[in-house]
Amino acid sequence: MLSFEAVMERLKDILSKEIGERKVYNKDVAQALGITPEYLSMLKKRNRLPLQEILDFCAARSISANWLLYDQDPHSLCERTEKFAYVRFFKEVNASAGGGAINYEIVADKLYIDMKIVEVLGGERELRFIEAIKVSGDSMEPLLKDGSIAFVHKGQREIKKGGIFVINTPYGLFIKRVRLRMDGKVELISENKEYAPELFDPHEIEVTGKIVGVVEKV
Question: I need a surface site. Which of 9, 63, 196, 198 has the fewest CB within 10 A?
Fold first, then answer.
């Protein structure tokens, strides 16, 4: 972070364009920040910046706080930010690849992902349909491992052609390979052969979405 004096000089430069040709003093900076000159003087002696007030100052003027406080080029920050996107991540929701998972609290966080992963998931246009959840259990191993993060495309719920889906059942939330049988029943199939297939009537289940990608736990 830049020194107290360096930040003050930058603030004065910004204010000079607002105030006009006259010299800008510390009292002008204090007024612009919404604090008293005495408080600013005390902070100067302690070599402490009024960070919250400076952030509000920057936000009101659409100025990069990173530039003001750290001398970082805003354009370089934009370039780095554009390399990432995010999807909603329900980290407290476990979709079972085992015996079934029942989840009561549903709170979404942001999961930031590299743009290379975005392309694998179908591109930026598809991100609005994609959410991330945790895999629980070993019934889908070695394809999906316990603790991995699975990406669910909520716009893809058609099971006629098969695939791996997140299925909500009376016994909890499952990640399973799905097959629609000739008798109309829905068969949930595990990759791990130690788990027997399970049958449901279509009205007993709800298809949440199709698994379109996975990231193994670190």
Answer: 196
